[in-house]
Amino acid sequence: MSNTIVVAQDFAKSLYESHETYKEKTITKRRFGYQTLVSIIEKLKSVPLFEVSTGTKSTQGRDIFLVKFGKGKTKVLLWSQMHGDEATATMALADIFNFFQKKDKFDPLRKELLEKCTFYVVPMLNPDGAEAWTRYTALGIDMNRDALALVTPEGTLLKHLQQSLKPEFGFNLHDMERRYSAGETGNLATISFLATAFNKAQDINPVRKKSMQVIAGMNRALQQFIPNSVGKWPSDFEPRAFGDNIQKWGTTLILIESGGYKGDPEKQHIRKLNFVAILTGLESIANKTYQRRYQNV
Ligand SMILES: [Zn+2]
Q1: Which end of the chain is more exposed for a tag (fewer CB within 10 A), N or C?
Q2: Ligand 1 centroid to 4 CA: how many Å?
Q3: How far is the CA of 84 from the centre of ligand 1 (A)?
């Protein structure tokens, strides 16, 4: 194992062990509702680091929040809960907002991330679905089949953000059914990653290759906590899905699916794994270490 890989794994371990410090205490269960998010966002508005905007409302008139921070050249767009009942990553994003407000041994990392990258975060893209605890938007539409038709205001917002910001990287954050296993291992897939395909032939172009490289690093980081429980999501091209189209539109897309973990019905352990995976991925993007650590993917 090369030195840089060891350093990356130690770094992930250190984040894993420190997660409790950054945990957003107002969220203790995965079904926490829209108002809890609103309170968290309200607090962010008074922190100079964050710029909060609300351009679009959901079908039922709820604000959808965009949180911007960092001053770097590399733009990264992250969104969670496109499916209303998939809240695990939203919890981790709330923890990440807290992480960026603290001062401690991770200061060099924060500095690096904020200098090299600009982050655009949409936590809870489907607030109506989150309130009703359903996959669908208030129009009864699966937003992830709306990337081309753009019938939903929420899906339209996501496309608008991708097209106007032109982020180099995108994180598409979901939950999946808990019954899936990690490859042939028979273990529950606790986290699954996918470098989403951009065409039916599943070709690898430079945009998708970067997805694979970032994912390789996140996978390595997580293996030490959940050995053989990291899965690879099937990569069939879905022409109407956002991930597939965003990859096609030129943003390197990383899909994270939160699955199941024994004894964790509220997905609090998986929340922590999301926190570690996302920050590990962002670190490799900020430092561009994904390029040299993981060349053979
Ligand atoms: Zn989903």
Answers
A1: N
A2: 33
A3: 8
The Å distance, Cα 66 to ligand 1 centre, comes to 19
3-state helix/strand/coil string of the chain? CCHHHHHHHHHHHHHHHHHHHHCCCCCCCCCCCHHHHHHHHHHHHCCCCCEEECCCECCCCCECCEEEECCCCEEEEEEECCCCCCCHHHHHHHHHHHHCCCCCCCHHHHHHHHHHEEEEEECCCCHHHHHHCCCCCCCCCCHHHCCCCCCCHHHHHHHHHHHHHCCCEEEEEEECCCCCECCCCCCECCEEEECCCCCCCCCCCHHHHHHHHHHHHHHHHHHCCCCCCEEECCCCCCCCCHHHHHHHCCCEEEEEEECCCCCCCCCHHHHHHHHHHHHHHHHHHHCCHHHHHCCCC
Cβ count within 10 A of residue 203: 10
Percent of the chain having pLDDT more than 90? 84
Distance 163 CA to ligand 1 centre (A): 22
| Ligand 1 center–CA 83 separation, angstroms | 5
What is the CA(281)–ligand 1 centre distance, in A? 20
pTM of the model: 0.95
- Please check the confidence at residue 55 and state whether its pLDDT lies above 80: no
Strand pairing class (230-232; 191-194): parallel
Beta bridge partners of 115: none
Centroid of ligand 1 to alpha carbon of 81 (angstroms): 7
